[in-house]
Design a protein that fits this description.
single chain; 290 residues; mainly alpha; two-stranded antiparallel sheet; 13 helices
């Protein structure tokens, strides 16, 4: 998608509509937002298919990357069958959930890990000038094609190796959505640090890589302070560890906790973004996108 850059005088983020998203949505607005998201995802996917060789290579590349990590853990557990109570099926479950959540949060919301760069570059001007919800439009205006391979990998791994009964399939889908909401809320929150820190892209990428790393290593490896961090500042526990335990032995209270954390983390991330948006200073750019 090409872009034409021209001068603009948008100025501060207090332009009309800059506080969109703070008001409680009505039923009609929710439906309108859902239609907008559906249309945006459809257009992004069609754009990806225009370059099919690139699209397929990115998806296959991500599948190959994930598969190499699984082979590493398979070889590890062949030598050490149990890791403090965890076996190979637990690690496969953990990877399946993390991959599916990553694909939803970063694949469909392609700008979720680019928020700091967009803020620091003054590129929010484009979204502020349009009538749609600023954050929602920002998230879905791009799609990470490679991350779609993670969705295929996560579901393929679960269906092929992790006893996919109808009940477990429904549970896996629900947990993947909850995990994606936690990841998305975290990425929105850390990306929004750019409102206060300026160029926070490096810090954001470090935190992003950190939450992925913590989410893909067996929980028995973490103790004490590190385990406490997984519950709070870097909520990797609720991205993969808690869902793995629920698929291992279902617990209604545990599922409610997972769903509640998904709502809390996503809500906090959105609140931080809109609080920071009040500080935003325009980059004096208006990007017209075809």
């Amino acid at each position: 998608m090409g872009g034409i850059v021209t001068d603009s005088t948008i100025g501060q983020a207090t332009v009309p509509g800059a506080d969109r998203g703070l008001r409680a949505p009505t039923t009609g607005r929710v439906r309108a937002h859902l239609r907008f998201v559906g249309q945006a995802l459809t257009v992004n996917f069609q754009i990806g298919l225009e370059y099919r060789a690139s699209f397929i290579s990115q998806v296959l590349g991500m599948l190959a990357n994930d598969t190499m990590w699984i082979l590493f853990w398979v070889l590890y557990f062949q030598r050490f069958p149990v890791l403090q109570g965890w076996g190979i099926n637990d690690v496969l479950t953990q990877w399946a959930i993390t991959a599916a959540a990553f694909g939803l949060a970063v694949g469909l919301c392609g700008n979720s890990n680019q928020i700091a760069r967009i803020i620091a570059g003054g590129e929010l001007d484009y979204y502020l000038a349009l009538p749609k919800n600023v954050l929602l439009h920002l998230l879905v205006s791009s799609m990470n094609l490679a991350a779609l391979g993670d969705i295929l990998f996560g579901w393929g791994l679960f269906i092929a190796f992790l006893h996919p009964t109808p009940e477990r399939i429904v549970l896996f889908g629900a947990l993947a959505v909850c995990s994606a909401a936690v990841m998305l809320g975290f990425l929105i929150a850390v990306g929004s640090l750019a409102f206060w820190l300026g160029n926070a892209e490096g810090l954001t990428m470090q935190l992003f890589n950190g939450i992925i790393t913590f989410s893909t290593y067996p929980s028995p490896l973490f103790h004490g302070l590190v385990k406490g961090i997984l519950f709070t500042a870097v909520p990797a526990w609720f991205i993969s560890h808690q869902p793995t335990l629920l698929l291992r032995a279902f617990d209604p209270a545990g599922l409610l906790l997972e769903a509640a954390m998904a709502v809390v983390v996503l809500t906090v991330g959105i609140a931080i973004f809109y609080r920071g948006l009040r500080r935003y200073e325009s980059g004096n750019l208006l990007v017209l996108r075809a």
